[in-house]
Design goal:
The chain has 68 residues and is an all-alpha fold. The protein has one helix spanning 2-67. The protein has a domain at 33-68.
């Protein structure tokens, strides 16, 4: 009976370690994916900001031409 309990505890500990490794791997993958999303988001924001700046410059240029 005692040997069975020891063996069962070993199996549970092994399974727990396996699940902990899988959780750590999943967390690492999620963090990497999150960093990728943040980078893509920032690139999109930068691109849109640049487009807005260009449009504002064009608007100012045409507004000056109309006044002349």
């Amino acid at each position: 009976m005692l040997l069975e309990q020891v063996e069962m505890n070993r199996r549970r500990e092994t399974e727990l370690q396996k699940l902990q490794r899988e959780l750590e791997d999943a967390q690492s993958q999620n963090e990497a994916q999150l960093m990728t999303f943040r980078k893509k988001h920032q690139e999109a924001v930068n691109q849109l900001t640049e487009q807005m700046d260009q449009l504002l410059k064009l608007k100012q240029k045409y507004a000056r031409q109309i006044l002349l």
